[in-house]
Amino acid sequence: xxxxxxxxxxxxxxxxxxxxxxxxxxxxxxxxxxxxxxxxxxxxxxxxxxxxxxxxxxxxxxxxxxxxxxxxxxxxxxxxxxxxxxxxxxxxxxxxxxxxxxxxxxxxxxxxxxxxxxxxxxxxxxxxxxxxxxxxxxxxxxxxxxxxxxxxxxxxxxxxxxxxxxxxxxxxxxxxxxxxxxxxxxxxxxxxxxxxxxxxxx
Length: 202
Fold this sequence. Notes:
The protein is mostly helical. The chain has ten helices and no strands. InterPro entries: Homeodomain-like_sf, HTH-like_dom, Transposase_IS3/IS150/IS904.
């Protein structure tokens, strides 16, 4: 799998210097200057538009850097606040599992991966990511265990009756054995197992 390079970020002071240099060297094409500075294509055009918004006609009075740094500080503060809120939610939700052992904490993490990032949960719950991943690689849910057990039973019944039982009869056999399962579920499991009755109609 090819990893995409993360775009390099430039601070506002660098952007301002690059824009001013592009004005000074107006005879040089922006594409050539971008290549010379090692920045991405069309960067100068974007930065010049941003810079122009703060242009007062006197470059010494341009507040481009000052205003954008203030914006950046606000964004960073909002980001930190959001992260703190998420940390609190994770800790609050996981609180009841913390005294039930690491396995229960891992189960909580596995069931909440769609809500929170693994990195953040590990940080809050003081868990190493590699430790969690090792656990997860060998983790089987109760539902998966039940499914595996039923599929083994289905396979046994199927071949015990010489491949003549379809989903309806196998469902009845399972229900008689105490399993609560529908015919449609048995059908899906048989389909996954590649089991098909020799008798088309039951």
